[in-house]
Amino acid sequence: MSRSPPSGAVAGSNRAVESPESDEANSRLGEVIMANCSAARVASYAAPYDVPERCTRPPTVRSGSVRARLAFDHLGPRTVQVPYEAQGPADAPATVVLGGISAGRHLAPTTSDPSKGWWPGVVGEGDALDPARHLLIGIDFLGGKTEDGLLRPVTTHDQARAVAAALDELGVTVASFVGSSYGGMVALAFAELFPERTARLVILCAAHRTHPMATGIRSVQRAAATLGADTGQPARGLALARALAMTTYRSPEEFEERFSHRPLHPGQPGRAPARFPVEEYLDARGADFARRFDIERFVALSESIDLHRTRPVSLPPDTLLVSFDTDALVPPWLVDELATRSGRCPRHVTVTSLFGHDAFLKEVDQVASLLKASLPRTPEVVR
């Protein structure tokens, strides 16, 4: 059953793609899909696997690392460690939750790790992804320095194989995926490699390929980080790369509302340049990132984004695609391209937001309502 989008959202139309790659054949394809979708339900979200009426087991936490031999796309067979964390009843629907390159396996507070996780308001007790109702699974992405040397290049398909290894370790045969940004790319790659293990997808701010302008900006970020390392200033290079990235994660409209155009001080001739409010923000975000990341890992994951490609026809029927109208990295027309070329009539919802690509982190209420309507869950276990 198709559902109306939440307040402030506009449902996608599965129309012929309005993009630089549109042509007459693609337009005809869009007309065919429009006809098929109008004659059938766009997305039923009926559970493709059995969902228990009530969880009989209490929520538990399993955290560890599985040693797996993976066939990398460009590196060949490698043995790697895949850190994972799983929270929730063992008999609840399994949902893999993946975020951007700075996200990790820790999704919500636990007794051993009370930190809030990377997606507060969406994942947590009483939230849309509640570990009392879902078996929630996260991993740390591969890439960068390892005990056996540098792991690069790493593709989204390589990350999908790592997810499969973690699921094997947990005894999970089939799972749903909620993937945002880079995590959405990995979820699409998993569905392409392991269709029989994919129940349904909710993909936010991701598509089957990257936008060339976004790739260009990320290439400059990688160059800045590498230049910093080559000149003995690795933290400074990484901070500058992240500062540039932040200008693409948010929207011009937000910056217009948030920052004054007036300088904090006009500078001193021959001594100090002018300083602006937005500069303070970008420097702070860059410095924070440089404390948490290293250059090798950043370059490997940034490069992995731009190596990402999946076939639209591999998209599962039970898929929800979510884009945001101010997202310059993954614009709604690119997500429309994925929907149209898949031939599967997935539901595509475009949400109005001030926050650009980062809207999946900021628009908590809208994201939560979409997830609640799209994923199976069981009543909370009596503790």
Compute the CA-based radius of gyration. 21 Å
Structural class: alpha/beta
CATH superfamily of the largest domain: Alpha/Beta hydrolase fold, catalytic domain
Number of domains: 2
Number of helices: 11
How would you describe this structure to a colleague?
By secondary structure, this protein is α/β, with parallel strands linked by helices. It has two domains: 60-209 and 310-374, Rossmann fold; 215-304, Orthogonal Bundle (Rna Polymerase Sigma Factor, Chain: A), CATH 1.10.1740. Helices cover 37% and strands 18% of the residues. The chain contains eleven helices and eleven strands. The protein has helices at residues 24-39, 156-170, 182-193, 212-230, 234-249, 252-258, 277-292, 295-307, 332-342, 359-362, 364-374; strands at 9-11, 60-72, 76-88, 94-98, 135-139, 144-146, 149-151, 175-180, 198-204, 319-324, 347-351. It has a nine-stranded mixed β-sheet, sandwiched between helices. A two-stranded antiparallel sheet has the order 6-7. Helix 3 (182-193) links the parallel strand 8 and strand 9. The protein is globular, with a radius of gyration of 21 Å. The two termini are 34 Å apart. Mean pLDDT is 86; it is low at 1-53.
List keywords for this structure.
383 residues, alpha/beta, Rossmann fold, Rna Polymerase Sigma Factor, Chain: A, two-stranded antiparallel ribbon, 11 helices, 11 strands
Describe the secondary-structure layout.
Blueprint: E1 9-11, H1 24-39, E2 60-72, E3 76-88, E4 94-98, E5 135-139, E6 144-146, E7 149-151, H2 156-170, E8 175-180, H3 182-193, E9 198-204, H4 212-230, H5 234-249, H6 252-258, H7 277-292, H8 295-307, E10 319-324, H9 332-342, E11 347-351, H10 359-362, H11 364-374
Helix pairs in contact: 2-3, 4-5, 4-8, 5-7
